[in-house]
Specification:
Blueprint: H1 8-20, E1 24-36, E2 41-45, E3 51-64, E4 67-69, E5 79-86, E6 91-99
Parallel strand pairs: 3-6
Antiparallel strand pairs: 1-2, 1-5, 2-3, 3-4, 5-6
Length: 107
């Protein structure tokens, strides 16, 4: 019978923890569909029709037309690019870049 060192179980748990909690940064583009500022959540639909739910990270930046703003300033219909980290439990938005087109007035 092969005997493993006593710390091998702890080592296995540490490796499992590292792989499960690994953070992967990605970007998604789409249109804001809903904003829940009271719980720091917003929803976005991409061009494929998939609905994304993001939680705003505590240190996140919200940029609207290049100006730093807050989640309260996002509106449904805004085009956005969201940089986010995917953890085991949620999509955490770290940067939200939004473009809001000014309405042109026609007389």
């Amino acid at each position: 019978m092969i005997r493993l060192p006593r710390f091998s179980g702890v080592l296995a748990l540490v490796l499992l923890f590292v792989f499960v909690t690994q953070v992967i940064a990605k970007e998604a583009r789409g249109t804001i569909t809903r904003v829940g500022p009271d719980i720091d959540v917003f929803m976005m639909m991409d061009k494929a029709g998939d609905q994304w739910i993001f939680r705003l990270a505590p240190t996140a930046q919200v940029l609207i037309n290049g100006e730093e703003r807050s989640l309260l300033d996002l509106r449904p219909g805004d085009d956005a690019a969201v940089t986010f980290e995917f953890t085991a439990f949620a999509f955490n938005a770290t940067i939200v870049r939004c473009v809001r087109y000014k309405a042109t007035r026609q007389d």
